[in-house]
Specification:
523 residues; alpha+beta; Lysozyme; Membrane-bound Lytic Murein Transglycosylase D, Chain A; 4 domains; 3-stranded antiparallel sheet; 16 strands; globular; disordered N terminus
Length: 523
């Protein structure tokens, strides 16, 4: 075979080698060491994708006959066209001869993720063959992050992920959660297809954005992917051919001598509900759970802990350890969740009222318990005639109006709260605040009450704790201050509202909102 070489530019945006780089190219969120997020390089995939691969140009006598590919493309084609093109032929041979290891790895990971993809695609009425797109995007690696900060199986940028309902903070990034990310990808792909009415153009816009595709259509006056091919960005020109080649390889790879060796399947798991602080490393150690297995089951967790404000987080645990966990849950959870805060309030375990997937008491709500003690601080004391009192802590909501010269760190210090909490409560991005902006702060305060008052109106501890938590949730949902980058869609998804309902409550005509505007979320 006569072969000449040409270098295709493959930047940082694809696992097929520019949109979402795979393997050694990509910093990856990890829970392997330390309390904080650790960005590492996926060393175990070094041989999968080089950053600037050379693709062999088809000569007069290609290794795979052109007629064979055309025939097989036609057999595989369903809703999405599998057009034969020189570029798609090049990538077929690239995946066979130069990157057989990558192809083999994709075959091994298919059983792990494809059932999930197929179920979601069927739910939204989308073509089943879209499942191959994630291979090009991320190499079926749920925690991969590109140099452009796109992340997860479907490579969502942070803002786009939030727009489609994927929650992200310092501890949780739902772009890495396979089920939620797949749901978001289905919504986005459906939106793109509705814009263009053509699957090849929709795939191209998933890579480069609908604006760039529309611009290419105006410049070339073309209406299909192949008529605008020459004016698209170079990485996008190869994106659709790569998708075609990967579709082919997953169906005909065996004919070219490529077989999976270590097939991956879903780990059988059960779930528990976490409320409040938990040290996941200690939890795994005491529950005899392999920490790497917990990471694999919960890729959306980006640190080794979940914070105090965690509410109803569904944590997957391997089923093989679930019975042991249930039998020893009190000692296990006490060891990894009990924590004293600077204010003296203790995160303590409340009685469980929820059930796990096996029907047992598998929910672990952890709430702020009142720090109750007698006023004298002495357990054995004589009655001196004074009224007996108790001291307890409660959460107080404070409003603060930003003044000229204020910054997030200074305000957090003033009220004795963390910067991360202040940002989370007020949806602050990049520590940007403006003069006149109203901030909400939740502060623990102590109050002294007569013991007789408490005795006269007894309330079970759990009921009181749930009432406080309910009030806090209600207070937090009452208003939302519009931040830069917010849209009605983002806000409605964040609070579980319909856009029409949100607009009606705030008497909004059209879809225009502006930063600093206060919106009523609940009444």
């Amino acid at each position: 075979m006569r072969i000449s070489k040409r270098v295709l530019w493959l930047g940082a945006m694809c696992a097929g080698f520019w949109n979402a780089p795979v393997g050694a190219m990509v910093p990856q969120v990890s829970l392997t060491s330390g309390q904080d997020t650790v960005e590492t390089i996926a060393q175990d995939e070094n041989d999968l994708m080089p950053s600037l691969p050379e693709v062999e140009e088809i000569g007069p006598n290609p290794a795979v006959p052109e007629a064979l590919l055309k025939d097989r493309f036609a057999k595989l084609e369903k809703s999405i066209p599998l057009t034969y093109h020189k570029s798609s032929h090049e990538f077929v041979e690239y995946f066979i001869y130069k990157k057989a290891n990558f192809t083999r790895t994709m075959m091994e990971r298919m059983p792990l993720y494809f059932p999930l993809f197929e179920k979601a695609l069927a739910k939204h009425g989308l073509p089943t063959e879209l499942k191959y797109l994630s291979m090009i995007e991320s190499g079926l690696n749920p925690t991969v992050i590109s140099h452009a900060r796109a992340g997860g199986l479907w490579q969502f940028m942070p803002a786009t992920g939030r727009e489609f309902g994927l929650y992200q903070d310092k501890y949780i990034d739902e772009r890495f959660e396979p089920a939620k990310a797949t749901e978001a990808a289905c919504l986005y792909l459906k939106q793109l297809y509705n814009i263009f009415g053509d699957w090849e153009l929709a795939l191209a816009s998933y890579n480069t954005g609908p604006g760039n595709v529309k611009r290419a259509m105006r410049r070339s006056r073309g209406t299909t992917f192949w008529t605008i091919y020459n004016v698209l960005p170079r990485e996008t020109r190869s994106y659709v051919p790569q998708y075609v080649a990967m579709n082919y390889m997953m169906n005909y790879g065996y004919d070219h001598g490529i077989f999976p060796e270590n097939t991956e399947f879903q780990i059988p798991n059960d779930t528990i509900h976490i409320n409040g602080y938990i040290d996941l490393a200690t939890f795994c150690n005491n529950a005899s759970i392999d920490f790497e297995v917990l990471k694999k089951l919960n890729p959306q967790i980006t640190k080794k802990i979940l914070p105090d404000q965690t509410r109803d987080f569904v944590l997957k645990v391997p089923s093989v350890q679930f019975t042991y966990l249930m039998s020893n849950r009190s000692s296990i959870m006490d060891s990894c969740t009990r924590k004293y805060l600077p204010t003296g309030v203790m995160v303590a375990k409340a009685d469980s009222t929820k059930t796990d997937s096996l029907g047992g008491s598998g929910s672990f709500p952890y709430v702020l318990a009142s720090n109750v003690q007698n006023a004298s601080g002495d357990e054995d004391y004589e009655d001196d005639g004074e009224e007996e009192t108790i001291q307890r802590s409660r959460t107080k909501r404070v409003s603060y109006t930003v003044r000229r010269g204020d910054n997030v760190a200074a305000i957090a210090r003033k009220y004795g709260v963390s910067v991360a909490s202040l940002r989370k409560w007020n949806h602050i991005r990049r520590n940007v605040i403006r003069k006149g902006q109203r901030l909400v702060i939740y502060k623990e305060v102590k109050e002294t009450l007569p013991a007789t008052r408490i005795a006269a109106k007894p309330r079970p501890q759990q009921e009181e704790q749930e009432q406080v938590a309910k009030q806090q949730r209600h207070t937090r949902k009452r208003y939302h201050t519009v931040q830069k980058g917010d849209t009605l869609w983002i806000i409605s998804q964040r609070y579980g509202l319909e856009i029409g309902q949100l607009k009606k409550r705030n008497k909004i005509r059209g879809n225009s909102i502006k930063p600093g505007q206060k919106l009523i979320i609940s009444t």
